């Protein structure tokens, strides 16, 4: 009815100047008119302009006074012409009416409050407060003095009234055609889809967001790197053992017992279980000898090797602890060349900041075979890193206790326009391999890097905590694209 | 890795030339050290005090902070760095260090008392005669001790160094371990006499020294070195006596290193004397000291002999991966301070006898020699050798990734036939055959196999048509190949990888399919851009016969149309016997690669 009223009126008139009076004249609820105007405006059938007006409405208190009269008049009327005691008067009225009524009536000089007796000063009073309230209730104009007085007494409050002035819109029609937002089953069943007019679709806005789950970016990158290793013929090492002994984590790697990495401020040592139960004794003996006095062509470190130090349990500081176990196992049988990889969690007793966490993921690859050279290492690194999208590499001499030669791997970062270190590599030392029992013409070339670093570069994340751990931004996980390295 | 700060100008003076920062970085990179930072004295102080950056004035001397490998103690001071780089650059021969030949009678002696075995059992000593210090040399001498203490000495636990003005003290010396109450002396930088136990208490508030107190604090006896007049030289590993303190004027330096690890004590002593014997009257000559242990064993130190190592040429070349003639390898070894005294031919095999100088304690095994050859040759000149490996098909790998993503937002995968009927491919889709699109089968057994599909739409619509009773909504997708006629191909036709998805429900779900398009773009890392922008994707309305007018659009990716989506035209739905409205998207995903 409201829609017909608006469109019908505009067919013969240029404007509805005030939706409020328009509604009143037709006895239609104003809210209903407003809704229709908004909808018609949305479809451009009409053009609507906002009208705002301040108007006064009664508060709850004001409403009761409009009904029952103001407190001061109620009080006045309760005082008989001959006067009354305070106690008696108080009994006749509600406490709030009594209190407010007294204040106002005294102020108006209507009554006399004696010590015990209350008496009228006038014979007749008008209830101007009530009259003004009723006028406001009826939407009639009231003088500014009355408004201010009522406002002060919190009997009225202002309200913003909103309405519209309306003219014909560019798509005006006396009757609205049915516009749809989507094709429905009913449209097909009734066959009225030919007549359906669709609301204009906004292709500059995005569609309705999809719902569904997302995988973690770091693990998406892990998956791709696993694929790369498999394509390069590498076999995965079992790395589901976080607790490791110092022996496999350090000693077996020819890392001396006074090495700074073995300090408690770099490594998490365990209180429980504090020590390892068993180690392969004959191998331990060979490791002890190579540390203390060398052998296998080495001078050794020349210090007193302590078994207690090797027995200490820790959270592995690198997955190379697993590599040392795997190579030892490999050495126990007839030699066969192997290519191994792993990507798993390692732990460092480090302060957490934008680029460091106490735990991270290490990627490690190694090849164990006869006749391997630095040329092979450089070749395999080029193959591996170019699949990660880093094909411009250079190598810097470096020091690492268990590799010799050692090479730091640098890659040219096009975005940063500089060389950045991306990993470490080298050939495992004979002092590590020969005590295991590997043949002396076997070389192991190996490299390692963190999973976090390339992921952060790939996804442009500069705070590692945004990526990994409980402080992650979930929307970042949802937003991030597929990992397309290694394709 | 340890960092050494050296004045740039002094370093360049020692190297005999100046370098641009880039040139110097390059030299460092080749040698295996790293220019970590370029700063000034004032900037370091400002940083320590957390003051704001100020413009460095031009007259401030630049300081190079250089990272050196943790096992190269000979690079921890300017003298050693400069020497190593000069030899690397072929400017200097390898220095030959010598121990002055003096009779045992006139040699200084250090007598070790048996109690020292309870706390710090070893001591090694040496004397530098006729040293000429200036301020820079003196500071370098002090700094080297600090760096050695920090690194190989493991914050003085393993080794502690004491250096003394020999002209203020008189041998023979004794190395003892006494109860703290019995030790009294004026320590360095103090004027008052302290009892050792009181001194420990006093140093608890000393920022620098308090961290070393724990090394001896709980021991009933403290190590202490006296001269013949009971002058205290030092209370290792805490502090030296004030009496024997060295100064710029000191000529003769007595060095003692007390230790719990004798190998490291010798390395530390050798590093100190080899680095600073360059300033001795007799360059590279060190005066020995005899250390006599309580069991009567005596040792002359320092031991500056060269360690001999026999290394076959073939071992080196098989590690490096480059076949090099013997003389070239010998030359490379010389650049790394390794003398090749002679090369022996045995059964046609060249064997080197390599002399490792006392400065190169890092050389433990022939593999270390091989590394030095590789460094001197240049890591980046070693030709790479490719090992067998496989390359995946990018398109297929990418298809796998995108399939998983579509599955994860709730679409079920279907796998439909490549072949379909002519009608299904054209007329039933409201499409006209322009005879330049589809590969046509010449001998189809039935009408089902007449053409090779040019779109994934017919297969998907047939699937919906056959699943009318499936609860709504139906959300399905397919990633697969279509075939188009292609004049550029030898056979005249080529495959193209498409992704298609369909929504079917009580309403067509057009906005949902639109949202799926956005998601596909999000997972391919494509930004949403304004129309006309070629850096991402945008959507513009289209006019395709298979879709309903007003509810269809093209997907423009980096300026090219790669797909369309829309409400499937009711006529098309009817053709495939589908009673419910559907929205559909089809994209060529080869564009993303």
What does this structure look like?
The complex is a heterodimer of chains A (487) and B (593). By secondary structure, chain A is α+β, with helices and mostly antiparallel strands. Chain A has three domains: 2-49 and 163-198, Ribosomal Protein S8, Chain: A, domain 1; 60-156; 217-240 and 317-478, Bira Bifunctional Protein, Domain 2 (BirA Bifunctional Protein, domain 2). Chain A is built from 20 helices and 17 strands. In chain A, the strands form five sheets. A seven-stranded mixed beta sheet of chain A has the order 9-12-13-17-16-15-14, with helices on both faces. The model of chain A has no long low-confidence stretch (mean pLDDT 90). Chain B is an alpha+beta fold and 593 residues long. Chain B has 15 helices and 28 strands. In chain B, the strands form six sheets. In chain B, strands 4, 5, 6, 7, 8, 11, 12, 13, 14, 15 and 16 form an eleven-stranded mixed beta sheet that branches. Chain B has a seven-stranded mixed beta sheet with strand order 20-23-24-28-27-26-25, with helices on both faces. In chain B, strands 1-3-2 form a three-stranded antiparallel beta sheet. The mean pLDDT of chain B is 93. The chains are: A alpha+beta (487), B alpha+beta (593). Chains A and B meet through helix 10, helix 16, strand 14 and strand 15 of A and helix 2, helix 7, helix 8, helix 10 and helix 11 of B. Chain B: Its EC number is 6.1.1.20. Chain B: Its cofactor is Mg(2+).
Outline type of chain B: elongated
Q: What fraction strand of chain A?
A: 15-25%
Which segments of chain B are poorly predicted (pLDDT under 50) over 5 or more consecutive residues? none
The secondary structure category of chain A is: alpha+beta
Number of strands of chain A: 17
Q: What is the typical, i.e. mean, pLDDT of chain A?
A: 90
* CATH topology-level fold name of the largest domain in chain A: BirA Bifunctional Protein, domain 2
CATH superfamily annotation of the largest domain in chain A? Bira Bifunctional Protein, Domain 2
Q: What is the rounded distance between the termini of chain A?
A: 64 Å
Largest sheet of chain A: 7 strands, mixed
Described by its quaternary structure, the protein is heterodimer
Contiguous helical run count of chain A: 20
Main-sheet strand order of chain A equals 9-12-13-17-16-15-14
The span between the termini of chain B is 42 Å
GO molecular function (chain A): ATP binding; metal ion binding; phenylalanine-tRNA ligase activity
GO cellular component, one term (chain A): cytoplasm
Pfam families (chain A): PheRS_DBD1, PheRS_DBD3, tRNA-synt_2d
Enzyme class (chain A): ligase
């Amino acid at each position: 009815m409201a829609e017909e009223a608006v469109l019908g009126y505009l067919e013969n008139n240029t404007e509805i100047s005030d939706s409020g009076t328009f509604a009143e004249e037709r006895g239609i609820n104003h809210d209903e008119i407003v809704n229709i105007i908004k909808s018609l405006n949305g479809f451009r059938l009409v053009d609507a302009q906002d009208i705002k007006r301040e108007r006064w409405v009664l508060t709850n208190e004001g409403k009761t006074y409009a009904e029952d009269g103001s407190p001061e008049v109620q009080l006045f009327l309760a005082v008989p012409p001959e006067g009354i005691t305070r106690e008696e008067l108080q009994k006749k009225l509600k406490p709030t009416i009594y209190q407010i009524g007294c204040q106002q009536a005294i102020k108006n000089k209507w009554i006399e409050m004696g010590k015990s007796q209350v008496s009228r000063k006038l014979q007749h009073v008008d209830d101007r407060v009530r009259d003004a309230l009723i006028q406001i209730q009826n939407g009639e104009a009231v003088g500014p003095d009355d408004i201010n007085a009522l406002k002060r007494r919190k009997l009225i409050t202002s309200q913003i009234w909103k309405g519209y002035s309306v003219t014909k819109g560019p798509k005006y029609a006396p009757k609205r055609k049915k516009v749809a937002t989507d094709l429905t089953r009913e449209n097909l069943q009734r066959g009225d889809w030919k007549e359906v007019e669709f609301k204009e679709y906004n292709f500059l806005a995005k569609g309705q967001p999809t719902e569904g789950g997302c995988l973690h970016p770091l693990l998406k990158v892990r998956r791709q790197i696993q694929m790369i290793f498999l394509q390069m013929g590498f076999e995965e090492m079992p790395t589901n053992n976080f607790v490791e002994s110092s022996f496999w984590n350090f000693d077996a790697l020819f890392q001396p017992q006074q090495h700074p990495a073995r300090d408690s401020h770099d490594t998490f040592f365990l209180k429980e279980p504090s020590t390892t139960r068993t180690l392969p004794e004959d191998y331990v003996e060979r490791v002890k000898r190579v540390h203390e006095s060398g052998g296998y062509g080495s001078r050794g470190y020349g210090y007193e090797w302590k078994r207690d130090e090797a027995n200490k349990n820790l959270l592995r500081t690198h997955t190379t602890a697993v590599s040392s176990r795997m190579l030892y196992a490999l050495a126990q049988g007839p030699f066969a060349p192997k290519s191994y990889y792993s990507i798993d969690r390692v732990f460092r007793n480090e302060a957490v900041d934008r680029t460091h966490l106490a735990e991270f993921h290490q990627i490690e690859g190694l090849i164990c075979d006869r006749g391997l050279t630095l040329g092979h290492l450089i070749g395999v690194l080029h193959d591996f890193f170019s699949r990660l999208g880093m094909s411009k590499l250079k190598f810097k001499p470096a020091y690492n206790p268990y590799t010799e030669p050692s090479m730091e791997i640098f890659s040219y970062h096009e975005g940063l326009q500089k060389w950045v270190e991306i990993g470490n590599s080298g050939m495992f030392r004979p002092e590590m391999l020969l005590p295991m029992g590997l043949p002396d013409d076997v070389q192991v070339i190996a490299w390692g890097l963190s999973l976090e670093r390339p992921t952060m570069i790939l996804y442009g994340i500069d705070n590692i905590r945004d990526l990994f751990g409980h402080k992650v931004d979930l929307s970042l996980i949802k937003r991030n694209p597929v990992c397309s390295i290694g394709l | 890795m340890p960092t050494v700060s050296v004045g740039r100008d002094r370093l360049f003076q020692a190297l005999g030339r100046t370098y641009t920062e880039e040139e110097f970085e390059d030299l460092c990179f080749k040698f295996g050290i790293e220019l970590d930072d370029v700063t000034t004295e004032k900037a370091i102080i400002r940083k320590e005090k957390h003051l704001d950056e100020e413009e460095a004035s031009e007259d401030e001397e630049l300081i190079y902070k250089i990272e050196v490998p943790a096992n190269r103690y000979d690079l921890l001071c300017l003298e050693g760095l400069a020497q190593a780089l000069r030899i690397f650059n072929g400017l200097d021969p390898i220095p030959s260090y010598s121990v002055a030949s003096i009779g045992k009678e006139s040699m200084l002696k250090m007598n070790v008392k048996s109690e020292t075995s309870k706390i710090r059992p070893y001591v090694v000593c040496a004397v530098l005669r006729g040293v000429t210090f200036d301020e820079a040399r003196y500071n370098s001498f002090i700094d080297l001790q600090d760096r050695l203490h920090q690194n190989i000495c493991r914050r003085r636990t393993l080794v502690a160094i004491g250096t003394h003005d020999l002209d203020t003290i008189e041998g023979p010396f004794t190395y003892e371990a006494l109860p703290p109450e019995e030790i009294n002396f004026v320590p360095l930088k103090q004027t008052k006499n302290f009892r050792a136990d009181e001194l420990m208490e006093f140093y608890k508030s000393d920022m620098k020294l308090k961290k070393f107190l724990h090394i001896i604090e709980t021991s009933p006896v403290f190590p202490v070195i006296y001269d013949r007049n009971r002058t205290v030289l030092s209370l290792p590993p805490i502090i030296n006596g004030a009496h024997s303190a060295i100064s710029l004027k000191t000529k003769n330096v007595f060095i003692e290193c007390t230790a719990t690890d004798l190998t490291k004590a010798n390395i530390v002593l050798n590093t100190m004397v080899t680095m600073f014997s360059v300033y001795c009257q007799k360059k590279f000559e060190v005066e020995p000291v005899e250390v006599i242990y309580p069991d009567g064993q005596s040792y002359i130190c320092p031991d500056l002999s060269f360690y001999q190592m026999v290394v076959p040429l073939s071992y080196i070349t098989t590690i490096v991966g480059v076949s090099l003639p013997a003389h070239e390898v010998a030359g490379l070894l010389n650049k790394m301070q390794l003398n090749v005294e002679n090369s022996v031919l045995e059964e046609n095999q060249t064997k080197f006898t390599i002399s490792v100088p006392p400065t190169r304690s890092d050389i433990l095994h022939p593999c270390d020699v091989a590394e030095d050859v590789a460094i001197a040759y240049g890591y980046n000149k070693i030709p790479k050798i490719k090992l067998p490996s496989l390359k995946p098909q990018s398109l297929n790998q990418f298809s796998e990734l995108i399939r998983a993503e579509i599955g994860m937002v709730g679409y079920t995968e279907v796998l439909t036939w490549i072949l379909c009927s002519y009608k299904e491919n054209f007329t039933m889709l409201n499409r006209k055959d322009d005879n330049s699109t589809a590969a046509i089968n010449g001998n189809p057994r039935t009408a089902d196999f007449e053409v090779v599909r040019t779109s994934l739409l017919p297969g998907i619509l047939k699937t919906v048509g056959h699943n009318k009773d499936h609860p709504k909504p139906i959300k399905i997708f397919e990633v697969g190949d279509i075939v188009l006629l292609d004049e550029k191909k030898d056979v005249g036709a080529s495959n193209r990888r498409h992704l298609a998805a369909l929504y079917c429900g009580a309403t067509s779900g057009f906005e949902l399919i639109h949202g799926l398009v956005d998601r596909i773009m999000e997972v391919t890392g494509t930004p949403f851009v304004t129309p006309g922008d070629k850096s991402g994707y945008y959507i513009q309305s289209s006019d395709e016969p298979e879709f309903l007018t007003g509810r269809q659009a093209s997907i423009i990716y980096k300026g090219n149309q790669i797909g369309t989506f829309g409400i499937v035209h009711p006529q098309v739905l009817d053709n495939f016997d589908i009673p419910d409205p559907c929205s559909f998207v089809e994209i060529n995903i080869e564009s993303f690669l």
